[in-house]
Amino acid sequence: MANSTLPYRGRFAPSPTGPLHLGSLFTALASFLQARSLNGKWLVRIDDLDPLRCKAHFSKQILTTLENYGLHWDEGVVHQSKRSSAYQNALEILSRQNLTYDCVCSRKQLEERYTGESRLTYDGYCLKNPATASKASAIRIKVGQNTIQLNDLTQGAVSQNLSDKVGDFIVLRKDKAFAYHLAVAVDDNDQNISEVLRGIDLLDSTPRQVYLQQRLELKTPAYAHIPVLVDSHHAKLSKQTFAADASEMPINATLIKLLHYLQLSPPVDLVSSPKHDILSWAIEHWQLDNLKKRTSIVVSTH
Ligand SMILES: [Zn+2]
User: Fold this and answer.
1) pLDDT (tens digit, 9 = 90+) per residue, 222-263?
2) Which of 153, 256, 264, 291 is most exposed by smallest CB count within 10 Å?
3) For 85-180, which CATH class?
4) Ligand 1 mean position, distance from CA 105 (Å)
């Protein structure tokens, strides 16, 4: 990859909408091992843009859980909620290029009119029919006919035509919260992230972030989208599926279990070693390629 000569900088960026669950800990551990095995930096960023869903006490709890598992990060923790001026600046750059417009559509109107591949695809209504009344509006970015291509280190070649798949997408929400994709593009650049390793559930949104990087003339990191943990019904472990809080699990046994999910084969007696020895063993044996082309890993309930 183009970034292989740069010092490695990875990040784990949880949203503090609940305690850290096993699925998130799996991703955190993978990104930690990838960074440490490459003698790189591992950063933690709190993606707390949504003031209604994100809670400060969950941020603290997530950081404590990471530390308890021995996943110590480099540099200070960045909170997206404190980065509004950087996102505002990016929005102004897009606006000066005449790439943005106001959208007053309600969710109901969008669902009634949807076209394209999915309900997510915006039809450009407010571009063709600019709103006259000063109603509450979101801001969208024009995507034109751009097809974004990238080579994901784990999943291979990805190609997405933005206008088919998503249409002009939101960069500032109606409630004036900055959209996640804008914030992530700006932050990954400002933090000099060389590689983004995260769950495959975010692969679909990566072309939007790459498009924003291109329009804002920001760096594009390498990407590695790893499988997500799923339960026996094939539902992704998440807050919505009431995945258990990782802080309530036994640390060593949980680390060993996660190493197996990461397709490593730790020796049986490693579980009784100090957690730092477990992590050292994992750093030494870690192979991102073990996860190649996999999209999910079923967790055992025992
Ligand atoms: Zn609209």
Assistant:
1) 999 999 999 888 888 876 666 788 999 999 999 999 999 999
2) 264
3) alpha beta
4) 4
CA of 209 to the centre of ligand 1 (A): 21
Same topology between domain 6-82+184-298 and domain 85-180: yes
**Of 142, 209, 136, the residue nearest 176 (C-alpha):** 136
This prediction's pTM: 0.93
Which sequence spans correspond to the domains of the chain? Answer: 6-82+184-298, 85-180
Place of tokens 């730790």: 266
Distance between Cα 178 and ligand 1 center (Å) = 17
Look over the chain and give the mean of its residue pLDDT values, rounded to a whole number: 92
Report the CATH number of the 6-82+184-298 domain: 3.40.50.620
Tokens of 26: 């799996």
The string of pLDDT tens digits covering residues 156-176 is 999 999 998 999 999 999 999
Positive or negative: CA dihedral 110, 116, 120, 125: negative
- The amino acid at residue 43 is L
pLDDT over threshold 60, residue 120: yes
Q: DSSP letter string over 125-144?
A: HHHHS---S----EEEE--T
The Å distance, Cα 50 to ligand 1 centre, comes to 21
**CB-CB contact of 71 with 40 (8 Å):** no
